[in-house]
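Dear support,

We are seeing what looks like truncated structure output for some complexes. This example has four components. We would appreciate it if you could run it in full and send us the complete token output so we can diff it against ours.
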Amino acid sequence: MRRVTPRRRQILDTAADLFAARGFHGVSVGDIGAAVGISGPALYKHFAGKEDILGQCLLHASERLLEGARALTEHGGDGDEVRHDRAGRAGHGGGTDAPAGHAGAPEDDVLEALIAFHTDFALSQPSLIVIQEREWGSLGEQARVRVRERQLAYIDVWTRALRPHRPELSPAQARAAVQAAFGLLNSTPHSARISRAAMRDLLTRMARAALTLSLIHI
Amino acid sequence: MRRVTPRRRQILDTAADLFAARGFHGVSVGDIGAAVGISGPALYKHFAGKEDILGQCLLHASERLLEGARALTEHGGDGDEVRHDRAGRAGHGGGTDAPAGHAGAPEDDVLEALIAFHTDFALSQPSLIVIQEREWGSLGEQARVRVRERQLAYIDVWTRALRPHRPELSPAQARAAVQAAFGLLNSTPHSARISRAAMRDLLTRMARAALTLSLIHI
DNA sequence: CCTCGCGGTTAATACTCTTTAACCATGCGG
DNA sequence: CCGCATGGTTAAAGAGTATTAACCGCGAGG
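Here is the complete output from our reference environment:
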């Protein structure tokens, strides 16, 4: 019941899609089984139960987000000040359109890298994004706290990256701003009528503006 | 089965909270009944069924949003150009902190009013916001299309209001930008660690920046 | 007075769901 | 060839669900 066989991976992927589309309680184990070509109780050869499937989805998603974010901040420093060295683009494919900086502000700090990273993740794994933000309450106690820990740590990485840009914000305000930016970036499952590249460009620009320029009055 | 008695209103409100918290399929009619002090099948004296309750919640929410938005645009004009006359603040209480404009841009156009209106709605009715964006798929055919019509019309009002600010965006891009802004404004149920006034201010500023300033490169 | 509709009750029906049990094919190490 | 783990099957159990049925107290209008 431990290793990750291709079948298990397939089950997790299709289950994530179903959970995202109809909600955890709106999907039966029969539905999941049928979606992968087997039927109902065969899933119990791979997972302990329905809740375990959701748990593995969420553990995997939150872990990938957190580790990706931490990889962007750990260039040797603690990430509490704006860094000017090149931030790696995170292995999620695509994304040749790096923002052409021109103002005095640093163009390649951690926040910029986080925006690009999260946008790529949301565009490539919309189902994981959806269930991560709305289904973590359907988990049992132990799995929920583990997922929640990673989610809070992920928010914390973002909040620290935002601080140098917006020193006037209190920690609580910065957290709220980060979560609002998540709402913006995670809106991609609800739209998807323009090309992926255009969506990526639009979302990164909007998130950048919302996070760094929102002190300007119109 | 038609008129809106206080009991019916109470049922709809508490059901909306439950649906927002645990999802439509995660709430039983017994749960809803218990939450209002009656038990289970008594709900059928007021509504045709569980799905009908969700339908009335969503119809009500989408109607209030659409009518509120339309009231802001209908000052006699069609709202396709930026208007400089005073836009009414929408009767949702609060909100004395009008943005102090200083740049050349118009400070009180329809978009600004829509941002304020939607922010107020999201802050005062978070449950309706949540179920409106994630539970409309649990509706039957006829109710779903009626709710969806209103939602699309609401998006359309926003998109038209955004056009004069961002003429370079294609209609599809403008729609995506509007939905991203909704994601940002609707993030309020996930945070709520700062005061309502501070949240209102933060969200309106971020949405304003995301929608109107996102063409600026950092 | 008395009927009658309104809003409630509990019991019962007819599912559907998760999970377990019992069984079976197949490929592989010895 | 044997044994057996792997991954699948169907049947069944047991809990939970929405919905309906049958019944009841009660306040108001004739």
